[in-house]
Amino acid sequence: MSNEIITRENDRIKRFFSSLDRMLDKIEAALTGCKPTLNGERFLSDSEVSDRLKVSRRTLQDYRTTGKIPYIQLGGKVLYRESDIQKLLEENYRKGWQ
């Protein structure tokens, strides 16, 4: 066994900390896309839904007003069930002609 003092400048220590940094980056990336669920259901904000549907937030407001899209309003916050959005898309799917 050597009596070497291990410091931050040691290559093994540098590789170890580099490995930890990569793991932390991967964990942060995984958590960024993760939304908590309530009873197994994910809820989306109006900006998330408008991004997914490729419509403006004003168009989304029209959909709510005309009853085309279900939503939940808590105070000034509007939320959409992810399952409702998926169901809406599936119900309005039209096959192409072939």
Automatic annotation (TrEMBL):
InterPro entries: DNA-bd_dom_put_sf (IPR009061), HTH_17 (IPR041657). Pfam families: HTH_17. Residues 44-92 form the Helix-turn-helix domain. This is Excisionase family DNA binding protein. It comes from Dysgonomonas alginatilytica.
